[in-house]
Amino acid sequence: MLLIRPRRLQSATVLALSLIVAAPVSAQLEEVIVTARKREESIMKIPVVATTLGRERIEQFGLDSVNGISDQVPGLNVGNQVLASGVQVTLRGVGTSTLNPAVDQSVALNVDGMQMTQGYAYRMAMFDMGRVEVLKGPQALFYGKASPAGVISITTADPGDELELLLRGGYEFETEEKMTELVLSGPLTDTLGARLALKYADSDGYFTNTAEPGYDPLPELLGDPALGGRTPDSRDFNANEYWMARATALWEPTDVFSARFKLNYAHDETPNNGGLGQLSSCPDGTDGLFLNFIGGSENCKVDDKTNVISLNPDFYPNVKNGGRPFSDAEQLFTTLEWNYEVAEDLTLTSVTGYYDIDIETMINGTATTQFGPAFAANNDMTREDLTQELRLTSDYDGALNFMLGAFYQDSTTEFLVDLPFNQIIAGAQALDLPTLGRALHTVDGEAWSLFGQVLWNITPELELGAGVRWTDEERTHTVIDSTAAVFGVPPFKVNLAEPEISSDDFSPELSLTYTPTDDLTLFASLKRAFKSGSFDVAGLPGDGEKTSFDDEKVTGGEAGLKARMAGSRVLFNAAAYYYEFSDLQVERSDFDAKTGRFLTHTINAASADVYGIDMDIAWTPEALEGMTLYAAGNWNRAEYADFDNAACSGGQTIAEGCNLNYSPNANGGAGGYIAQDLGGESLLRAPEWAANAGFDYRVPVFGDMLLALGANASYASKYLANPLARDDMWQDAYTKVSASIGLSGRDEAWEVLLIGDNLTDELVCGSLGEADYANAGLFGDIVTGAETAGASGVTELACITDPGRTVWLKLTLRPTAWLGG
Can you give the residue ranges of the TonB-dependent receptor plug domain (predicted)? Predict the structure, then answer.
């Protein structure tokens, strides 16, 4: 029999929710052993705030995306982004806001021990999972490079010591998504186990594109081919097809050595990607002369419909996919971990990771519905990461223990910006321009770090933890401009003002944990962390232009308690925190008259303060065995203390606050102010109040069957979906409700599961894009920092909308369970 004793030290701290998901039909919330500090410890002695979701809960609510995870974790918010940026994650109001695929996210993703910062990686990781851990606050010691806001750690499933065959099919009624899964797992020899997991899904998409012929009552206004437009091939907006595969091998030839290898591949294709979402705010109305550019049928509301045409390829040189907006992503990811006991109670661990992603996209650059847009956005992005970590960890019986380690990362990001120009407009303006710009950005990075921690049991009840990570990171930025290649001008290297940057800093951490009894723990910690600066890669820089931005830093701490009461039937946890951020990396958009669009840059906000309280409780009532009730809440204040270089929104006047940094070159040379002070304003995606509550009830029925019922309600107060804090940039408060009911046979040989997610059908804007969508800058430039807004008025907003209600029916078969394994 294969003895599976995984030695991979998982990154997690478990609060009450982790016990909820693991709770059997029993009397108590059982003790849980975790490895939050890369060593096995009781949950009661971990000085970290986190939420852990086990496999049962993941499957119960169909949590296969970070959006679903956010509904289970108060303080975790998500903004989906266009093109290669992928998912942007915020914890306690701190996260990534900029549309820049070369920036490291403030909330890191860690999959099977490897740290990644590319938002697209969430899709590949969230499949056949064993557990998900969300660690709140700065994480400096245990997860590769330090993460200023937190870590989402995903551990995928391993082979067990018995043969397992799983067949699962599912159908989602709102998007008509069809899904199939296959898992084959078990021992190959006494020392070697293997697991193969496959998943395929095909969805029509949640939203409907009303620009498709026959839907709109005035189809002649949509997709005019004589003006560069083209009607979409389908009403299905953001329809998606993807498949994923993961192979795992777990080898334990001796009692002192084990190795785990994982190979992942994912292909994600959206053949009719709208890219920019749907227009959500049109301050100048929808029926004026300029608004003909976005068509006469646009309601400019967040709903389940959008209105975006394709492009006539005859008018866009070198446009991809015949002018049909699309995205296509391929990902390859592998990790190799081994553990060797070099001496008794002393283990050497190695984790090697490799990640490769290739994304190809094209979107309608200004979301038009009648005219072809001023430009198409052709983008390609590739990224390769190679990481290596070594750790030496002690597990002595004495008062002192330690961990020492080293980390290395080598990365390369390439991002192609290509903007094929509408040749009708080019002809009208007597311009011989096939493209508004074409440039290849390359960012090479190399990082080294050393880290260590000492744990000292001053008394059996009092532990002092002290650690530090030193990181040295260098990045270089190269831009090759080939805009004029059509005129015989060879591609040339842009002479950037600062093509190389480096970071060299320490991230210390100090914790004190007091456990007077097995049922009570008090803890406090002080932390400092930083995230390296990088470069903007989304624009078309010229000679002498600066594209770099500085490191992001955070200092602060938290204190809390963990209590177990009523004979282990009640768990209560609470923590208060305060952190000061400096040079927070945020988004700035500036209007570019050449392209008629707002170009996104990453800049540093001087300072921000984040403080609040996390609380949660879990209870298994004695009168109703099998029932677990839970609730969690987060009160959070996240505000800029000093941010006087924030961009102005398009059309913002002097009286409305655009009154800083006068530039004579602004507004087409007419002059104007280009900045505003957002000190005291909220950070992006930072609701002041967030909470969730629910129950899990499992009870035997009909002899050997098991009925499982569950429900979860999550609430978030209003928050900004764009960092510029305009009145129409707020996402209103919302409540989402999810529920599930499942019936399974003996030993889970079969299971039927019905899942309703977001039953309240809330359409949430995690990200709002700002641009002159009404006229694409063709009928007069947007004016900012002047007495009046100008002829083009105020910029419109496009919402990257999260899907609304989904209803899944899933059937799972485990034939090996029928045979008794």
Answer: 43-151
Q: Which residues of 470-499 are buried (b: 16+ CB within 10 A; e: fewer)?
A: ebebebebebebbbbeeeeeeeeebebeeb
d(CA 86, CA 58): 22
Average pLDDT of span 410-430: 87
Sheet containing 114-116: order of strands = 50-54, 129-136, 150-156, 107-111, 114-116
Contact assessment for residue 542 and residue 497, using Cβ atoms and an 8 Å cutoff: no
E strand residue ranges, 104-239:
107-111, 114-116, 129-136, 150-156, 164-172, 177-187, 192-203, 207-209, 229-230, 236-237
CA distance 805 to 739: 11
What string of DSSP letters covers 51-77? EEEEHHHHHHTT--SHHHHHTTSTTEE
Residue listed under structure tokens 């108590």: 28
CATH domain 16-818 topology: Maltoporin; Chain A (2.40.170)
For residue 546 the two structure tokens come to: 């600066």
Strands 597-619 and 462-481: unpaired
Q: What angle do CA 648, 649, 655 make, to 5 degrees?
A: 65
What does 281-349 look like in DSSP terms, one character per residue?
Answer: E-TT-SSSSGGGGG-S------SSEE---EE-GGGSTT-GGGG--EEEEEEEEEEEEEEEEEETTEEEE
Above 70 in pLDDT, residue 289? no
Q: How far, rounded to the nearest angstrom, does the alpha carbon of residue 478 sit from its chain's CA centroid?
A: 27
657 has a pLDDT exceeding 90: yes
- pLDDT of res. 11: 32
Measured distance CA(510)–CA(557) in Å, rounded = 9
% of the chain at pLDDT higher than 90: 54
| Cα–Cα distance measured from residue 506 to residue 471, given in angstroms and rounded to the nearest whole number | 6
Q: Which residue in this structure is represented by tokens 């069957």?
A: 705
Instruction: Identify residue 155 by its one-letter amino acid code.
Output: T
Tracing tokens 């920019």 back to the chain, one arrives at 276
pLDDT in tens, 478-536: 999 998 887 788 999 999 999 999 999 999 999 999 999 989 999 999 999 999 999 98
CA distance 242 to 437: 32
Beta strand pairing call for 150-156 and 107-111: parallel
Residues 426, 227: Cα–Cα separation, whole Å: 12
Domain residue extents for the chain? 16-818
Quote the pTM value.
0.90
b or e along 8-24 (b: 16 or more beta carbons within 10 Å of the residue's beta carbon)? bbbbbbbbbbbbbbbbe
Kindly tell me the sign of the dihedral angle through the C-alpha atoms of 778, 274, 299, 764. Answer: negative
Query: Which residues of 620-688 form beta strands (DSSP E)?
Result: 627-642, 646-647, 660-663, 672-676
- State the pLDDT confidence band at 598, using cuts at 50, 70 and 90: low
Query: Residues 142, 391: contact at Cβ < 8 Å?
Result: no
DSSP count for the chain of H helices, then E strands: 6, 46
- Core vs surface per residue 538-573: b (16+ CB within 10 A) or e: bbbbeeeeebbbbbbbbbbbbbbebbbeeebbbbbb
Q: How big, in percent rounded to 5, are the helix, strand and coil portions of the chain?
A: 10, 55, 40
